[in-house]
Write a structure and sequence with these properties.
single chain, about 425 residues, alpha+beta, Alpha-Beta Plaits, 2 domains, about 40% helix, binds (2S)-amino(hydroxy)ethanoic acid, binds manganese (II) ion
């Protein structure tokens, strides 16, 4: 009889664990609460959150994430690039992590979901696995990258291509990248040590909001990202001649702000003149001396160009340079381009990872499409060193980089469930 009982017991244990795994889902309300808890870091009087990389709010939020990871028994550290790392030990012999995560730093006046959904979903996935006492063969590594909005710096360092030339770049906090990395607990003198070798990581996954309107418009629940655009940044300097706004005749001026205005229109016209999905933007401008009764003598603007092809980015840039030369000739305002070391190359996502994501989506009965990403992500750096995949969830109204950014709890939970299932599937499939 005992023998029989033992078999029944074993069978029912296997059945329960099978049923549990089949029903294994994230806790939607807990995930939404984490998003709101995270939004408290940098909360302003008007109820919006400011949390630009390297700010006190960013540092406090990163410490909070570390405490959440510690509570779940993970080994945590801040690497020399300021990335927050949490490791959940695996039960197998393999030392290769399955890594997943995103970022929690934001653009100025940004939203609560960009980067935060992937980061908080990573915590939720770990919570569910801990609660259900599910061990994975591979160690699981959560990465909350540093300074993603400053051109994916933390993941660039991990991919081994963050050089000292990027260190002087300042963000909206006024801190340079070097100062910021130190503030986050990193160490710029050892930045090379953070680089992972290709093959160190078994797979990298990032869940992220789409930041565009495609999924919502087509009433789809999930996007499988095929590729991520590359982007390049420049500072553009306009040197004219500051002079009296009242006594200087209109035909005797070297008005730097007028030239910059013509440049901004030219950037828009050039980007629209090519077929394809390239984009070009002037997002920042400063005019000196900035008084109403002085003709601006010096203006500095930003310039950003993005496309899935580096060649197209270069072609658009060359056309913009030509238009700048015409403006210079007509206005005698000198125009100089300063490329910033913020280049993020276009990245194609791993086909087998996309396939695993698709299988997870189908097992959950969710609607989906494969699509490119017009936004840059840490995943584009991780794709240089590991098989990488990205999962998109809808952005309401396609709005992002704005306090009006929103993704519903059920959409976030859908994405987190796809992330969870794909991690478990990869854990089984990969050595
Ligand atoms: O700018 C981007 O594309 C991303 O949101 N950092
Ligand atoms: Mn992002
Ligand atoms: Mn962003």
């Amino acid at each position: 009889m005992n023998h029989f009982k033992k078999h029944i017991l074993t069978f029912s244990l296997i059945l329960t664990s099978f049923v549990l795994k089949a029903q294994l889902t994230v806790n939607k309300d807990r995930l939404e609460k984490r998003i709101m808890d995270l939004a408290q870091f940098g909360i302003q009087e008007n109820g919006e959150t400011e949390r630009v990389a390297f700010s006190d709010a960013d540092i406090a939020a990163r410490q909070w994430v570390i405490s959440q990871l510690n509570e779940m028994g993970l080994d945590t550290q801040i690497d020399v690039a300021g990335n927050v790392i949490g490791i959940r030990k695996g039960s197998g012999k393999t030392k290769k992590n399955i890594s997943f995560g995103s970022h929690i730093d934001r653009v100025p006046n940004g939203g609560n979901y960009d980067g935060c959904v992937g980061s908080m979903a990573a915590l939720e996935v770990l919570k569910v696995l801990t609660e259900q006492k599910i061990k994975t063969k591979h160690p699981l590594e959560v990465i909350i990258f540093s300074n993603e909005e400053g051109a994916v710096m933390g993941s660039r360092a991990m991919a081994g291509h963050l050089s000292k030339t990027a260190f002087p770049i300042k963000n909206a906090t006024g801190y340079t990248v070097a100062e910021g990395i130190m503030r986050l607990g990193g160490d710029t003198t050892k930045i090379a040590e953070v680089a992972r070798k290709k093959g160190d990581i078994a797979a990298f996954l990032e869940l992220h909001i789409e930041q565009g309107g495609t999924l919502e418009k087509e009433k789809l629940e999930i996007g499988i990202v095929e590729g991520i655009v590359g982007l390049k940044w420049w500072d553009v300097e306009f040197n004219g001649f500051a002079n009296h706004a009242g006594t200087t005749p209109m035909n005797a001026r070297k008005d730097a702000l007028l030239a910059a205005s013509q440049f901004i229109i030219a950037v828009n016209e050039v980007a629209n003149s090519f077929d394809g999905a390239q984009v070009a933007t002037v997002g920042r401008i400063s005019a000196e001396p900035g008084a109403p009764n002085v003709i601006p003598g010096k203006v500095t603007t930003s310039l950003e160009i993005r496309d899935l092809s580096s060649e197209v980015i270069e072609k658009v840039y060359q056309e913009i340079e030509k238009r700048a030369l015409e403006i210079n000739k007509a206005s005698s305002v000198e125009i100089k381009f300063f490329p910033l070391d913020t280049t993020a190359d276009p990245a194609i996502m791993d086909a087998s990872i996309q396939n695993e994501i698709e299988k997870s989506i189908n097992s959950l009965g969710l609607s989906y499409k494969s699509m490119p990403s017009g936004a840059g992500h840490d995943a584009q750096d991780m794709a240089l060193i590991a098989p990488t995949g990205m999962i998109f969830v809808p952005s309401k109204g396609g709005i992002s980089h704005s306090p009006n950014e929103f993704t519903s709890a059920s959409d976030m939970a859908n994405g987190a469930n796809v992330l969870l299932k794909t991690i478990l599937a990869l854990d089984k499939k990969l050595d």
